[in-house]
C-alpha cells in the first residue's frame, strides 16, 4: 500500500471481527520478527504487521523521515484499512513509534518491548554486541518465523545514505516530554541485561506514563521478549484480556 509516497509491505490476517493488534518491529528487522507473537492471537484478534519503511519489502522513504513521519504514515495506513483505536505492540524502534503514536492518536492498549525514548540511547555500534547476544538466545533459530539473519540486518554501517540519516534522526529524538499525553493502559517488557536500552530507562519510562506497568526478565537482553517467548505470550494474553471486540 502506498502511504506518503512510499510503498509499505504489510500483512493483515486473523479474526477480522476482533480488536486489531498492530505489531511493529525494531530497527533493521522485518515482519517475521513479530509474526510469532501475531500468530498466538490470530484466533481472537485481527493482526496487522508491517515492514516499516526502509526495511523488509517496504520502500525507503524518499526524504529523511522523522519519527513523526513514521507515526503519521502508520496512522494513514491504518485509516485506509479501517483500523482505529488499535492495540500496538512494538519492539525497540517499533516501540518508540508506538509511544509517539499513542501521544497523538487513540490507542486501546500499548506494549513496548525494550523501547528507546530518550536521545542517543540506541547506538549503531551496538550491532556486534546484539548479534553476539542473539546467538545465545535458546531456541531462537527454532522459533518458526524467526531467524538470526533478521536481527540487526540493517544498521548504520550497511544502510544506504537515506536510512543513515533517518537513524540519526531517530537516536537524537527525545520524546520524554510528550509521554504524559499517553492515556491508554501501557505495558513495558524489559530484560535486566539489555545493553541497547538500559533497564534504568525502563524504570524511568514507567514513571513518565500514567497507567503503566513494567515486567522485567532477569538476565535477559534487548531481545528479552524472544528469550522468554512463552512467558511473553502469557503476559501479553493477561494484559490484552478477553475484551477483543
Short description, anyone?
By secondary structure, this protein is α/β, with parallel strands linked by helices. The chain contains 8 helices and 9 strands.
Question: Which tags fit this structure?
Answer:
33% helix, 7-stranded mixed beta sheet, Rossmann fold, alpha/beta, 245 residues
Mind explaining what this structure looks like?
The protein is α/β, with parallel strands linked by helices. It has a single domain, classed as Alpha/Beta hydrolase fold, catalytic domain (Rossmann fold, 3-Layer(aba) Sandwich). The chain is 33% helix and 17% strand. It has helices spanning 32-39, 67-80, 93-104, 127-134, 161-172, 199-208, 224-227, 229-240, and strands spanning 2-3, 6-7, 10-14, 20-24, 46-50, 87-91, 109-113, 186-191, 212-217. Strands 3-5-4-6-7-8-9 form a 7-stranded mixed sheet, with helices on both faces. A two-stranded antiparallel sheet has the order 1-2. A hairpin with a 2-residue loop joins β1 (2-3) and β2. The longest helix has 14 residues, at 67-80. It is globular. The two termini are 26 Å apart.
Radius of gyration equals 16 Å
Q: DSSP strand (E) fraction? A: 15-25%
- The CATH class: Alpha Beta
- Give the H and E element order: EEEEHEHEHEHHEHEHH
Helix content: 25-40%
Q: Kindly give the count of domains.
A: 1
- What's the story with the biggest beta sheet? 7 strands, mixed
Q: Could you give the order of strands across the largest sheet? A: 3-5-4-6-7-8-9
Work out the helix count: 8
The CATH superfamily is: Alpha/Beta hydrolase fold, catalytic domain
Amino acid at each position: 500500500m502506498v502511504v506518503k509516497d512510499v510503498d509499505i509491505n504489510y500483512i493483515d490476517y486473523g479474526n477480522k471481527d476482533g480488536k486489531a493488534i498492530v505489531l511493529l518491529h525494531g530497527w533493521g528487522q522485518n515482519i517475521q520478527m513479530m509474526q510469532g507473537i501475531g500468530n498466538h492471537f490470530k484466533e481472537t484478534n485481527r493482526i496487522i504487521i508491517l515492514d516499516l519503511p526502509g526495511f523488509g519489502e517496504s520502500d525507503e522513504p524518499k526524504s529523511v523521515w522523522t519519527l513523526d513521519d513514521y507515526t503519521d504514515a502508520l496512522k494513514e495506513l491504518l485509516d485506509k484499512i479501517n483500523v482505529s483505536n488499535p492495540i500496538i505492540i512494538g519492539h525497540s524502534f517499533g516501540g518508540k513509534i508506538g509511544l509517539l503514536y499513542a501521544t497523538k492518536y487513540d490507542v486501546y492498549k500499548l506494549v513496548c518491548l525494550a523501547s528507546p525514548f530518550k536521545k542517543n540511547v540506541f547506538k549503531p555500534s551496538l550491532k556486534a554486541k546484539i548479534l553476539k547476544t542473539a546467538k545465545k538466545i535458546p531456541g531462537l533459530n527454532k522459533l518458526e518465523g524467526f531467524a538470526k539473519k533478521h536481527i540487526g540486518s540493517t544498521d548504520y554501517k550497511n544502510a544506504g545514505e537515506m536510512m543513515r540519516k533517518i537513524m540519526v534522526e531517530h537516536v537524537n529524538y527525545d520524546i520524554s516530554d510528550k509521554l504524559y499525553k499517553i492515556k491508554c493502559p501501557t505495558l513495558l517488557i524489559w530484560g535486566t541485561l539489555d545493553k541497547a536500552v538500559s533497564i534504568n530507562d525502563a524504570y524511568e519510562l514507567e514513571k513518565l506514563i500514567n497507567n503503566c506497568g513494567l515486567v522485567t526478565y532477569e538476565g535477559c537482553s534487548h531481545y528479552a521478549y524472544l528469550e522468554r517467548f512463552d512467558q511473553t505470550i502469557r503476559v501479553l494474553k493477561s494484559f490484552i484480556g478477553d475484551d477483543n471486540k
